[in-house]
Amino acid sequence: NFGSSCWFNIRPPSPILGAWTRASSVMSQSLTILFAVLRSIGTSATLAFAGIIVTRKGFITDQGRRCLAELSMNLLMPLQLFTAMLAVRDKNSFTPLSELIKGSWILLLLPLLVVGSGMALGKLVAVVTGCPQNFSKACVGAVAFANSTGMSITLLQVLAPALLQEGIIDTDPLKYLPVYLLLYPMLQWTVGSYLFGLLGSGSNKEQEQKKQQVAELPVAQTLGHQQSPEATGATARRVTFTLPEPEQRDTEEAQHSTVVGTSSCDSRASAASQAHAVMARSSTLAFAHVASTAFARALSVGVDQLPELHLAADPDFYPPEMMHAASFCSQAPARAEDLEAPSEVNTEDSFREQESESGPSACRRCMEAAAKVIRNALVPPVVGSALGLLFAFFTPVQALFVELPGSTAAAPLGFLFAGLAAIGHASVPLNMLVLGSNLSKGCDFKALPIATNLGILFMKNLGQPMMMAACIFGLSRVFTSTPLAVWLVAMIVSCTPTANNIMVMVELSGQNKAGVTTCIFTQ
After folding, report:
1. How confident is the model over 95-142, as pLDDT tens digits?
2. Which domain holds residue 83?
């Protein structure tokens, strides 16, 4: 009795003991999360360090780094996303995608909230901190796009056993992560392609056509006129010439020593018949556009304005047949009435009539605009993710690639799936090599303002997680039947740092790579 009454045998009351036990459990879970994060960071650091070494050795050059980024975006990441949609991690707990979405549909729409809030917060950081123009889009992307694949899987793999053992959750959260990844990669690469200016192939063709149209009009450069970017095709007729002054013309005559453009063989003093033949140095087509009377009418140049067209060129530069064509064209508009230009009002009306007759209809313009948006949105990673989603939604089609529970034979296309999965698994290491290659020269903290870097760090690691935690808290009180594992996945994917594959977008867009590298390194 005496021993039991001693102070060292006195136990704390049960409420205090329960609180101590709960505190120990929370501390244990916090340490588990900390170790999981450190392991994930260590794995990423190892891959990035390999990229630093091979770049320092000279194996990865600037051109090679861009080639790796192109390879990752156009082959490796599409295959990784495609195979991730079809893969079956555990046959015993396999659930068809259609049924899985019914129980965790909130994760299917959550990427809209995560990316949308991230873009708003990133724009806020860019405006408040005075972000440079060459980093403004990257600032938005650094907050909007999180590492929701590699790091999320690592964290859930480490957290799930401990949480299941404690009874906090009753379902493996990894089975719900693919639901979030159905839309997020498509949203990331669609919005990211628009944000970073990664246009589709159709847009590139349109740019090449515009370049060719500009190349076919070297006269504009010779005359020194100013033309708006929209003035191509039919609207290229309305150009404004900046004609040189008489003193400047005399100086140019002394420099070039030869002036081309006599419009009459009889007398140069005749103002009505004087037309200067323009010698374009680029092509015979451009020469014909300038020297012909049709081109003069298209430019709305009247008879009284023709003497002011003063163009200089070297006749020795052109072959004899072109000089003969020049003399023929210069003698053609001999009468003033042939060059009589319509009034200003009639000219503008004719332009409107021609554009209304030859221009596309409103419906066709809308269809072309929609096709352009679709081309820009369907970048390779989005295509791979969409195909994987489509195949996984139909269980018989999925069974062609992977073995499902209850199947007695191997999948007919299992060999194809294994090969595609092996190629796709190289995506994460290659992305980290690209990141390490950019880090090989060290972080340049002068590449972006300190305020912008700290703003991204705060907003990505504290601001957005706090906002998403408040949203998840409210949604969990409304949709009470949703499993806790779903909310755990929602919280994990909202708290991860900036995605490493954003470097691929930056590498292809040619924006401030040093600033993005410093931003990722800081996080």
Report:
1. 787 887 887 889 888 999 999 999 999 999 999 988 888 888 888 888
2. 27-198+380-522
Question: Residue 226 phi/psi, 5° resolution?
Answer: -105, 125
Q: What is the DSSP letter of 12?
A: P
Please indicate, yes or no, whether residues 240 and 336 belong to a single structural domain of this protein.
yes
Does some domain include residue 498? yes
| In a shared domain, residues 186 and 227 | no
149 plus 109 within the same structural domain: yes
What's the CA gap between 25 and 17, in Å, rounded? 12
Name the strand (E) or helix (H) holding 458. helix 450-458
How far apart (Å, rounded) are the C-alpha atoms in residues 225 and 311? 13
Do 191 and 222 belong to one domain?
no
- Count of domains in the chain? 2
SS3 19: helix
On whether residue 78 sits in a domain, the answer given is: yes
Distance between CA atoms of 262 and 265, rounded to whole angstroms? 7
Q: What gap in Å lies between CA 279 and CA 506, rounded to an integer? A: 44
Residue type, 377: A
- Tokens for 127? 């405006």
259 and 320 in a single domain? The answer is: yes
Distances 297 to 99, 187, 237, 294 between C-alpha atoms, Å: 69, 51, 9, 5
- pLDDT tens, residue by residue, 408-467: 788 899 999 999 999 988 888 888 888 788 778 777 777 788 899 899 999 998 999 999
**Alpha carbons 372 and 327: distance in angstroms, whole number:** 47
Question: Of 505, 500, 472, 506, which is closest to residue 487 (Cα–Cα)?
Answer: 472
